[in-house]
Amino acid sequence: MDNDNNLFEYYVTDEYDGYRIDKLISELIDSFSRTYIKKIIDDKKVTCNDKIVKASFVVSENDHIKMEIPPVEVPEILPQDIPLDILYEDSDVLVVNKPKDMVVHPAAGHYKDTLVNAVMFHCKDNLSGINGVLRPGIVHRIDKDTTGSVIICKNDNAHQKIAEQLKEHSINRVYHAICYGIIKEDEGTISTLIGRSPSDRKKMAVVQSGGKEAVTHFRVLKRFEEDSFTYIECKLETGRTHQIRVHMAHIGHPLLGDEVYSSRKSKFKTNGQCLHAKILGFVHPTTNEYIETNAPLPEYFSHLLDVLK
Question: Against a cut of 0.85, is the pTM above it?
Answer without folding.
Answer: no
